[in-house]
Amino acid sequence: MRKIVGIALIAFGVFLEVLWIGFCFGSVIIGILLLIFAPRILFFPFTFFMAIGLSLILGDKFKSAKFKYQNYSKYSSSSQPNYTSQDTIDKYYKTLESLKTDDLSTIKSNYRRLIKKYHYDSIASQNLSDEIEELYKQKTQELNEAYSAIKEHLK
């Protein structure tokens, strides 16, 4: 039943799209301008009903796929994660070997010292095992995440 409704919604979207394009190109200038400058508006009925129809037909497979119109509400406008959890912030201070009372310049110097110590490029010339290099890459990523989170938190 879900597949039939999904196919019906897709067909309805195609029908609306044909009507919408006919309406837009009834005034040729508006249709051409929409086609050039705003194709998303021109093809909205089709994409909207296609997404709903496919979600009904495919179910969970459709929801787990990575689509262009995915909801990014868990991120702020700068596409960076929102670090608000107090436990997480405490963990980041510990990662940077800093105290909550430290100012940003102290935290920055700790970050630079630790990056210099743990950056995987600095140990590449030492011919260490791949496992150790992988650990250093992870440590570098943790340090970068912690520093950016603390900077965001202190703003």
Please characterize this protein's 3D structure.
The chain has 9 helices and no strands. Helix 1 packs across helix 2, helix 1 packs antiparallel against helix 4 and helix 7 packs antiparallel against helix 9. The protein has 155 residues and is mainly α. It has 2 domains: 63 residues; 69 residues, DnaJ domain (Helix Hairpins).
Features:
Helix Hairpins, 9 helices, 2 domains, mainly alpha, 155 residues, 74% helix
Structural class determined from secondary elements = mainly alpha
What is the string of SSEs from the N terminus onward?
A: HHHHHHHHH
Radius of gyration over all CA atoms, rounded: 26 Å
CATH homologous superfamily annotation of the largest domain:
DnaJ domain
End-to-end separation: 52 Å
By DSSP, the count of extended strands is: 0
- The name of the CATH architecture of the largest domain is Orthogonal Bundle
Count of discrete domains? 2
Q: What's the main sheet like?
A: none
- Shape descriptor reads elongated
Level of helix content?
Answer: over 70%
Q: Would you tell me which CATH topology of the largest domain applies?
A: Helix Hairpins
